[in-house]
Amino acid sequence: MTLPRNDGLTPDDMSAEVLSADVVIVGAGSAGCVLAEKLSREPGRHVVLLERGPGRWPGPEARDLRRLPIDDHAPYAVRHATDLDGLTAARGSAIGGSSVVNGGYFLRWHPEDFADWPEGWDLDAVEAAYSELDGGGDGDGGTMGVSPVPDDELGDAGTSFERYWSARAAVRPLDDRWPVTGVNRVLGNRSGMERRTAAQAYLEPALDRPNLRVVADCEVRRLEVSGGRRVTGVRTDRATFRAGEVILAGGTLGTAQLLLASDLEPLGGAAFLDAGEHRGLAVSYRRKGPAEPGMVLPSVVHTVDGLEIRCYRDDFAAYIDGLPYSGPMVEVTAMDLSPVRLVADGERVRLVFGEPSAEVTAAMRAGADRVVEMLHSTELAGIVVPGSVSVAAVPGFSQHTWGTMPMGVRTDALGAVHGTEGLRIVDGSILPTGGHSGPHATVMMVAVHIGNRLSDEG
Ligand SMILES: Cc1cc2nc3c(=O)[nH]c(=O)nc-3n(C[C@H](O)[C@H](O)[C@H](O)COP(=O)(O)OP(=O)(O)OC[C@H]3O[C@@H](n4cnc5c(N)ncnc54)[C@H](O)[C@@H]3O)c2cc1C
């Protein structure tokens, strides 16, 4: 599918209508697609959505849940350097952003994760926005087509993992949407074995609106700022766009890049922004036989001490082209914030990791011991090669960086950036806390809530 009015624009094609808009949204990712749809419901509001990724609709092969298309040559991803040996951070660069390339796990955070969110984010508002996306248990899967991984897709490792933990912890009923401390069968945003992307759910139905313009292959380089505080538009490689309001939805890394590249007084010439990440210890093993192909992460356990124990189906080498074999793994991830600094470094911010705290490190080590015990249990005996289990010396990280510009601290409760005019951020950057689960459902929930509020204000 192509983007009817929007594909392949060149500077010469760009009419004055395209060059100015009421709202310019930067980034057609998980949050940006939601906002573009909601803000363009009002026919009198002229919305331009700018995306650096290609002006093609990612096809079924790119959306296959049995692959993670983030290898060095992937058409819909970019990579950021990190200071961890041999590791880079990938991000979607596509119509649909990271929802095109991610694992397809779509779990809500736990209700208590919202206790410290700013005013306006009471649990009823959070529940309503999540329910739009995941169907809220009514069985229809919501806009994102959310459903639990079925029993027959769990795979032998996932089945044994759930059998082991369900004898020791609570289990979330399959159709419930709120996760529990205990066993959580993964909920996926999917249509059969394909990821359902934010672009399919939100942008596609709005593409024919005359007041919405999508311009792909168009990287924004900096904000246009007047007097250090008033944002008047954005500069791209191809043109300058004037806007009544600019909404940054470039993802935590893409938005940080733009904030650091622009002369915004409230940031005081900063060369870096601090963020949160999820660090995880891999417990690897060898399998006795091959794994059935399927979704990368079918089941997780959430523990009282803030860990997410992730039972990956197979070696990541089975999902990512060019990755060397390192064995399938169960990852013990600390869902408490671990620090990461996003440092200006040419075209893409670089990630510089701090040490996880002593508590986080101790919790990961204790969790890894429990996983080693599990891998040696009778439940896993048919899968794990004896003597093959090993715990990584150094924690890796999830692709989850969030919280550079937290709501209630650096923005208001709807993402308007304190100390500026005409600038809002709606993406992973504004999550004010971490949560017990991965971020995708929650980033989209934030965009749904803010998009609805802004569109009501009309
Ligand atoms: C490989 C991978 C696997 C993941 N798996 C999961 C998972 O299974 N479950 C989960 O909960 N979370 C997962 N995540 C995280 C989750 O996908 C993200 O947190 C979420 O998609 C972030 O949404 P966003 O809107 O903030 O950014 P994105 O969806 O990344 O969107 C940002 C968009 O902005 C564009 N952009 C950036 N800068 C510019 C610019 N200067 N000009 C123009 N366009 C720009 C980008 O190309 C991109 O399309 C994963 C992430 C990755 C990378």
TrEMBL record:
<protein>
    <submittedName>
        <fullName>Oxidoreductase</fullName>
    </submittedName>
</protein>
<dbReference type="Pfam" id="PF00732">
    <property type="entry name" value="GMC_oxred_N"/>
</dbReference>
<dbReference type="InterPro" id="IPR036188">
    <property type="entry name" value="FAD/NAD-bd_sf"/>
</dbReference>
<dbReference type="InterPro" id="IPR012132">
    <property type="entry name" value="GMC_OxRdtase"/>
</dbReference>
<dbReference type="InterPro" id="IPR030900">
    <property type="entry name" value="GMC_mycofac_OxRdtase"/>
</dbReference>
<keyword id="KW-0285">Flavoprotein</keyword>
<comment type="similarity">
    <text>Belongs to the GMC oxidoreductase family.</text>
</comment>
<feature type="domain" description="Glucose-methanol-choline oxidoreductase C-terminal">
    <location>
        <begin position="362"/>
        <end position="447"/>
    </location>
</feature>
<dbReference type="Pfam" id="PF05199">
    <property type="entry name" value="GMC_oxred_C"/>
</dbReference>
<dbReference type="InterPro" id="IPR007867">
    <property type="entry name" value="GMC_OxRtase_C"/>
</dbReference>
<dbReference type="GO" id="GO:0016614">
    <property type="term" value="F:oxidoreductase activity, acting on CH-OH group of donors"/>
</dbReference>
<dbReference type="InterPro" id="IPR000172">
    <property type="entry name" value="GMC_OxRdtase_N"/>
</dbReference>
<feature type="binding site">
    <location>
        <position position="220"/>
    </location>
    <ligand>
        <name>FAD</name>
    </ligand>
</feature>
<dbReference type="GO" id="GO:0050660">
    <property type="term" value="F:flavin adenine dinucleotide binding"/>
</dbReference>
<keyword id="KW-0274">FAD</keyword>
<feature type="domain" description="Glucose-methanol-choline oxidoreductase N-terminal">
    <location>
        <begin position="22"/>
        <end position="264"/>
    </location>
</feature>
<dbReference type="InterPro" id="IPR051473">
    <property type="entry name" value="P2Ox-like"/>
</dbReference>
<keyword id="KW-0560">Oxidoreductase</keyword>
